[in-house]
UniProtKB/TrEMBL annotation, chain A:
The species this protein was found in: Fulvimarina uroteuthidis
Name of the protein this chain belongs to: NADH-quinone oxidoreductase subunit
Keyword Transcription regulation assigned: no
Keywords of the record: Membrane, NAD, Quinone, Transmembrane, Transmembrane helix, Transport
Keyword Chaperone annotated: no
Compartments, as annotated in UniProt: Cell membrane; Membrane
Family: Belongs to the complex I subunit 3 family.
Primary localization: membrane
EC number per UniProt: 7.1.1.-
TrEMBL record, chain B:
Protein origin, superkingdom: Bacteria
Pfam family, one: NADHdh
Transit peptide recorded as keyword: no
Listed transmembrane segments: 63-87, 99-120, 132-152, 224-244, 250-271, 283-305
UniProt record similarity statement: Belongs to the complex I subunit 1 family.
Location(s) in or outside the cell: Cell membrane; Membrane
Annotated protein name in UniProt: Complex I subunit 1 family protein
UniProtKB keywords: Membrane, NAD, Transmembrane, Transmembrane helix
Entry coiled-coil feature ranges: none
Membrane topology per record: Multi-pass membrane protein
Matches recorded under InterPro entries: NADH_UbQ_OxRdtase_su1/FPO
From TrEMBL, chain C:
Organism superkingdom: Bacteria
Biased composition (Basic and acidic residues): 125-136, 354-386
Region listing for Disordered, in residue ranges: 123-165, 350-412
Organism annotation: Fulvimarina uroteuthidis
Biased composition (Gly residues): 144-158
Gene3D superfamilies recorded: 3.40.50.12280
Protein name: Uncharacterized protein
Length: 112, 306, 412
């Protein structure tokens, strides 16, 4: 386990190396910095209160993400517990699936 | 001692896999297009070109995140690879919860890609970044369900146990559709073909549209490393990892990984990409229920014959 | 030493070219990029050479200069039969007029590009300096430490540009920020020369206005032209390898067996399934999948279908709003050159119509709901209709009777 930070550091260093080993670097001038729009120009900065049309999907996602947390220990004891574990998780997934059906009916996946 | 050997093997595996990925990525599209086969020197030449090109910054970018994104992406690929056993007991990080470690690598990949697209403060990368999140979030759920399906027979979340549990039968036999769903995740986190919502042609390269020179190279390197990593995880979770007759385990894993990698590169060139909203609907309403069914099938099979 | 080894390797790389296509040059440019030694860069950021092919309009010159400056160093420019005066500084000039055939000219241009790249990579040729002045687009002004002053939270020009402001959305009426910019004229996924002023919210187009029409290409609608169009659509569908295969077929072997194999590969790719039904429907022209089907039929050996004339009212400014970016790009690339030039005519609008609040049936953002008459895919159903009318745009829905495209595809 203790190797992980080292790997990350090696990753960082190798990218640093990639970014550092060249002699052509100069700082970008103002016309170089204009965002690419095929020659056209923007009115404003691109950062904005972006209209994320799938925001309602992310709520559904959180429900499944929590479910995942229960699933990890469940997978370990599944064979031991047998049918009981199966039933429990089946019920859990069925309830969540109703969530998907409801979300679908409400048009969550339509990017409104 | 074993860990030291595993680290060395990890480095060998990563560099070999990386070279193979770069070659496959250069040659397969040319083959499919019916063009002359490109030379093995071409990826190196392109890397050299990017290294000798100026790095451009955009107007008021988030320079720190822009720099960190490829680094994070590469680090995640390497950490993901580190939980894979190269032979019995030969694993860099002998984690009891290998699947959870890999799952967090998947999840953080979304963060890395989003950071990369967001920090340029430019419209096309920004759209690519937000779009990718919409597809990658549900795609990650898919992969975790099928991985749980792979963990059930092993009664463990460690990749070492998952491989050992496949001595009787490989997981691909238990859940064939699971393999396909996992390959889809592979396409999504290595940003390719039908799941490349971050850098598609309709956004002129999306997250990379305003990136030049060494930064672009760093991103491409990280992408290929992630491709190697996800191929190795697929081979381990579904194709029996290092198991195989005669040859040493490391060689078997490398062969299986190469097979998955080529399949991924080919699939990335053979299948069309849907508009993102449509894809999101397909994942939630068709693929996710399919992954539930696969889990159910594996569970039933274990209870009846396990 | 490391540097000279790097530049030796770099010289072997395929020549990265960003191309601005002018009058009638698209076909020749596409043939040029069939060569594996030349790579078409998606943006100038990935390129080292700017290729300006064909005649440009006077007003395009400023945009070309901007594109030039967006390239990283080392960089160079090649003018191929381009008459842009001194706008690009002292760029390399190639004139194909003296050569006998198109093919010779193509090869000569390729050689020229390769030589340019060799000289650039080895450092023999100095990188071109900026053409525009090195000053921020807007002077830093406003009150406060970040220049953010002005009215309330907004206003001022922090870091050279104003921040985005809110406006109501077409689809759900939520008031989030809009992004207005001029897209084109040389965006790789746009028809060459087309300059659109678009307002986006998220990635949905709220308003589109044609500022400059596409530069005319050889508008003859024959099999090669149809196949090139197919190739462009394949690129957008994430199938660049098949797109390249199509282009190679256009340039060389157009035998029926090659095309048949190609058609099979395209069908297997699921390209038809990937396209939402009813997308981009125009009266008389069918929807996007119908148009793609026509193109596939051409690949299958039949001659290009002739579609009836466009209704007068059809225009990009009513076709694009309401579409997501990726859908809009597919729609934009699905028309033949003649149809597109009609769809993309510059319209003189009185000032009060500029902001999209016009009440004229021709220009209004029409309701797409009527096209979704298919039963199977619920999540597509009515995606562009409904809540879009909320919050100030309520009167758009009532214009459905005037909707020029409403009659197509049938109402549900």
């Amino acid at each position: 386990m203790e190797i992980v930070p080292w790997i990350i550091i090696i990753g960082v260093l190798s990218v640093l190396w990639i970014r550092g080993v060249h002699s052509v670097q100069r700082s970008a001038t103002a016309p170089q910095q204009i965002p690419f729009l095929g020659g056209g120009t923007p009115d404003t900065h691109a950062w904005q209160r972006y209209h994320i049309r799938y925001y309602s999907m992310t709520l559904l996602f959180i429900a499944f993400e929590m479910e995942m947390m229960f699933m990890y220990p469940w997978a370990v004891v599944f064979v031991e517990e047998g049918g009981k574990a199966m039933m429990e998780m089946g019920m859990f997934l069925a309830i969540l699936s109703i969530g998907i059906v409801y979300a679908w009916r409400e048009g969550l996946f339509r990017w409104q | 001692m074993m860990e030291l050997i595993a680290v060395l093997l990890l480095l060998v595996f990563l560099s070999m896999g990386f070279a193979g990925a770069a070659l496959a990525d250069g040659m397969l599209p040319a083959l499919i297009a019916g063009q002359a086969r490109s030379s093995w020197r071409r990826p190196i030449a392109e890397a050299a070109r990017l290294l000798t090109t100026q790095r451009i910054r955009t107007e008021a970018p988030d320079a720190l995140l822009w720099f960190l994104a490829p680094t994070l992406y590469l680090a995640l690929a390497i950490v993901g690879l580190a939980v894979i056993p190269f032979g019995p007991g030969l694993v860099t990080i002998p984690s009891e919860v290998g699947i959870v470690v890999w799952g967090s690598c998947e999840a953080l990949t979304i963060v890395a890609v989003f950071m990369f697209g967001w920090s340029a403060n430019a419209p096309l990368p920004l759209i690519g970044a937000y779009r990718y999140v919409a597809i990658a979030l549900p795609a990650m759920l898919l992969s975790m369900f099928v991985l749980i399906g792979a963990a059930l027979p092993a009664e463990s979340l460690a990749f070492t146990e998952i491989v050992e549990a496949q001595r009787t039968v490989w997981n691909v036999v238990r859940q064939p559709a699971g393999l396909i769903l996992f390959l889809m995740l592979g396409l999504a986190i290595s940003l390719r073909g039908p799941f490349d919502y971050a850098g598609p042609e309709d956004l002129a390269g999306g997250t990379t549209a305003d990136v030049s020179g060494p930064s672009l190279l760093a991103w491409k390197v990280a992408r290929l490393a992630m491709l190697v990593s996800v191929s190795a995880v697929t081979a381990t979770a579904f194709l029996g990892g290092y198991l195989g007759p005669l040859l040493p385990g490391f060689v078997w894993l490398a062969l299986k990984t190469a097979l998955v990698l080529i399949a991924l590169v080919a699939a990335g060139n053979f299948f069309a990409r849907m508009p993102p909203a449509r894809m999101m609907g397909v994942i939630w309403t068709m693929l996710l229920p399919l992954s539930f069914l696969m889990l159910l099938a594996v569970g039933t099979e274990l209870l009846l014959w396990g | 030493m490391a540097v000279s080894a790097l530049s030796r390797w770099a010289r072997e790389a395929p020549v990265p070219v960003f191309v601005a296509i002018g009058d009638g040059m698209r076909e020749r440019v596409e043939r040029l990029f069939c060569d594996p030694g030349i790579e078409r860069a998606a943006t100038p950021r990935h390129a080292a050479i700017l290729l300006i092919a064909g005649r440009m309009r006077l007003e395009d010159r400023e945009d070309l200069r901007r594109l030039h400056d967006q390239m990283p160093h080392p960089r160079a420019t090649l003018l191929w039969d381009a008459k842009v005066g001194e706008a690009l500084g002292d760029a390399e000039i190639f004139s194909g007029g003296t050569l006998e055939s198109d093919k010779d000219a193509g090869e000569a241009v390729r050689d020229h590009l390769e030589r340019l790249w060799q000289d650039l990579a080895s450092g023999e040729r100095p990188s071109e300096p900026d053409l525009l002045h090195d000053e921020p687009p807007n002077p830093w002004e406003g009150i406060g430490p970040h220049g953010q002053g002005g009215k309330g939270m907004m206003g001022g020009t922090p870091y050279g540009r104003p921040m985005a402001m809110t406006s109501d959305d077409l689809r759900d009426g939520l008031a989030l920020d809009t992004y207005t910019a001029r897209f084109g004229p040389f965006l790789p996924m746009f028809p060459p020369g087309l300059l659109l002023e678009m307002t986006l919210q998220g990635d949905v187009i709220q308003a589109a206005k044609v500022l400059r029409p596409p530069l005319s290409q050889k508008a003859e609608e024959n099999a090669p032209a149809a196949l090139s169009r197919l190739a462009r659509l394949l690129d957008l569908l994430g199938l660049p390898a098949l797109g390249q295969r199509t282009r190679l077929a256009v340039a060389g072997d157009r035998s029926s067996s090659t095309l048949e194999k190609l058609g099979r590969a395209i069908r297997w790719s699921g390209a038809m399934l990937a396209i939402p039904p009813g997308l981009g429907a125009v009266e008389g022209q069918g929807d996007l999948s119908a148009r793609l089907n026509d193109l596939l039929a051409v690949a299958g050996g039949s001659s290009p279908a002739t579609r009836p004339e466009l209704p007068e009212s059809a225009h990009l400014s009513s076709l694009l709003p309401g579409l997501e970016w990726s859908e809009a790009m597919l729609v934009l690339n699905s028309f033949d050159d003649k149809t597109l030039s009609m769809l993309a005519m510059v319209m003189d609008e009185p000032d009060e119509e500029r902001d999209g609040h016009d009440h004229d049936g021709d220009h209004m953002r029409h309701d797409h709901g009527g096209h979704h008459d298919h039963g199977g895919s619920h999540h597509e159903h009515g995606r562009h209709q409904g809540e879009g009318g909320q919050g100030g745009h309520g009167d758009y829905g009532s214009h459905q009777g005037h909707d020029p495209h409403g009659s197509h595809g049938g109402h549900t």
